[in-house]
Design a protein that fits this description.
By secondary structure, the protein is α+β, with helices and mostly antiparallel strands. The chain has one domain: Ribosomal Protein S5, domain 2. The protein is built from ten helices and seven strands. α3 crosses α4.
Length: 287
């Protein structure tokens, strides 16, 4: 019988604290992020083979690739996250892999991290590895940030692994995920009033993260104060959410966006600014 294993991991929207999970800030000052996962996913299907060949089909990138586990996997900018996962999880037997997601890469929803979590999930099931959620998230982080060398923080891997509404704290090398018990009526109101808007463009976050890290390491006061402020806003947003104060939550969301724009000049562009101001002029509180 052919063995088929499937896995999926949710995408996320981050409300407050994003950026404070990116080293070296959390090691020195501690970070905090408020986020929730949504009903959009990254999917992974594995079909076991009887040889050492690996065939990968990515619908998002329109790529079909073939590798040999004994021939070595070279990073060349194509499916490097898949190669990194294969290397770090020490896979020895071949398989066919089918990958796709509900949102394009670079959409700002943590798509690449969700894909890595889905990969870890499918390999975990296939190999029957006794990994906890924290171990899955850390492994996904190591695959993406250390092995593949993609810069960023930890919030995306933990959000995709744990799912739901979470307040995450990053303290040195440890991470604490606090699931939030948000009242049903608050969630309903939030879902009714939130709008996820596609700007028509995608981007990689590496440039923004480079600017943020550079500003923090060089002790740029504007960047440091923006990071400190966005962390405090994450705590305030959590409290507003738990108290059911949705209007206050929206106002804090606006403050958080104004704050994040101080991280880097690449954070926004004229098109996004126009879209945001149009939404605000039409009654949106923040975003």
């Amino acid at each position: 019988m052919i063995m088929v294993v499937r896995s999926k991991a949710p995408l996320r929207i981050s409300f407050g604290g994003g950026g404070t999970d990116v080293p070296p800030y959390p090691e020195e000052k501690g970070g905090a992020v408020l986020s929730t996962t949504i009903d959009k996913y990254a999917y992974c299907t594995l079909v076991a083979r009887q040889d050492d060949s690996v065939n990968v089909k990515s619908l998002d990138y329109d790529i079909v690739a073939k590798y040999n586990l004994n021939g070595g996997l070279q990073y060349d900018g194509k499916l490097d996250l898949v190669k990194a996962a294969i290397k770090m999880m020490g896979l020895k037997s071949g398989f066919d892999l089918f990958l796709h997601s509900d949102a394009p890469p670079g959409s700002g929803l943590g798509t690449s991290s969700a894909l890595v979590v889905a990969l870890v999930g499918v390999f975990k099931q296939w190999l029957r590895l006794p990994l906890t959620d924290y171990e899955v998230a850390e492994l996904a982080y190591d695959i993406e940030r250390t092995e593949a060398g993609i810069k960023g923080g930890k919030q995306d891997q933990y959000a995709a692994t744990f799912g739901g509404f979470n307040f995450m704290e990053f303290l040195g090398n440890s991470t604490i995920v606090n699931p939030l018990r948000v009242k049903a009526e608050t969630l309903n109101e939030l879902e009714y009033r939130l709008m996820l808007c596609y700007t028509g463009t995608t981007r990689l976050s590496a440039g923004i993260i480079d600017d943020q890290i550079k500003g923090y390491v060089e002790r740029n006061e504007a960047v440091i104060s923006a990071l400190d402020e966005t962390k405090q806003l994450a705590f305030a947003m959590k409290n507003a959410l738990l108290l059911g104060h949705v209007n206050e939550f929206g106002s804090l969301l606006h403050e958080a966006w104004c704050c994040k724009k101080r991280f880097s000049t690449k954070m926004t562009d004229p098109g996004i600014d126009e879209l945001y101001e149009t939404a605000r002029a039409s009654g949106a509180i923040g975003g």
